Amino acid sequence: MFKCPHCNQRTFSFRTKLSLKPNKLFVPRKTAICKSCKKTVSVPYWSIIIEMCCFVAFVIAASSYMDYRNKIDVALAITFGFTIYMVSYLLIVPLIKWKE
Ligand SMILES: [Zn+2]
């Protein structure tokens, strides 16, 4: 569980954190409400960059090493990309206070 930046209670699950999106051009913002203090949290704008890097890395890896006819290769590449994305979200991206 992750700490709420408002009240310091561990009220956010990893799944909730993963679903959060900062407000950017093509991506609709997604926030979460703390169960304890009912305040809104989100993730910083730069979490988009991490997401993009994962996607680009995945595309590069996929186009150079992957045999698209091999379904296991495709599944592995997707799993790999998604795992990196989740780990970076878990370790790097903090929850921040969101002010409407
Ligand atoms: Zn809270």
Automatic annotation (TrEMBL):
Question: Any transmembrane segments, and where?
Answer: 45-62, 74-96
* Keywords for the protein's UniProt record, in alphabetical order: Membrane, Transmembrane, Transmembrane helix
Supply the name of the protein.
Cxxc_20_cxxc protein
Q: What is the lineage of its organism?
A: Bacteria, Bacillati, Bacillota, Clostridia, Eubacteriales
